[in-house]
Design brief:
Length: 155
């Protein structure tokens, strides 16, 4: 038989779990389901961060290749690019890649003095039925940078 004290402690811990996971559920089962979803979300975030760290570590070993990260934000994308080397026309090449994919640039910051850094939010053009995913955007940006570097070396 469970004592009142055990029930009270269990209820307090359940309320604490509810507040930590930002659950609005009222019954025990729903609070636990929300907590499970919250833990799964945290696990996915940790995996993504680990992938990003691994990518950055490999980037530091191969400094000649650009670091391109694309993150979906609903129908939009957050695109970040860092390259140790900048070449003339790199910004234009990346923006043209966005245009070819049917992405509108909603906001962008670029620095291309010594290194090339770009942070942009791109949104899909309304009425465009072709769905673009993160990997397609990343490949297009990488290709644009490679083409820009190749054309710069030709001169």
């Amino acid at each position: 038989m469970v004592s009142r004290e055990h029930k009270r402690v269990f209820h307090e811990k359940l309320l604490l779990l509810r507040s930590v996971t930002n659950s609005r559920a009222r019954n025990e089962a729903s609070i636990i389901v929300d907590a499970s979803k919250y833990i799964e979300d945290l696990k996915n975030r940790v995996e993504k961060l680990n992938r990003d760290i691994a990518c950055q570590r490999s980037f530091h070993h191969d400094i000649s290749s650009p670091l391109v990260n694309v993150e979906a934000l609903g129908n939009n994308f957050l695109i970040t690019v860092f390259s140790k080397d900048s070449c003339p026309g790199m910004t234009v090449a990346v923006l043209e890649a966005f245009e070819e994919l049917g992405l509108n640039v909603l906001d962008a910051r670029v620095s291309c003095a010594d290194t090339f850094r770009l942070e942009a939010v791109g949104g899909e053009i309304e009425g465009d039925n072709d769905t673009v995913d993160e990997s397609v955007v990343k490949q297009a940006v990488m290709k644009a940078i490679k083409n820009c570097r190749t054309s710069d070396e030709d001169f």
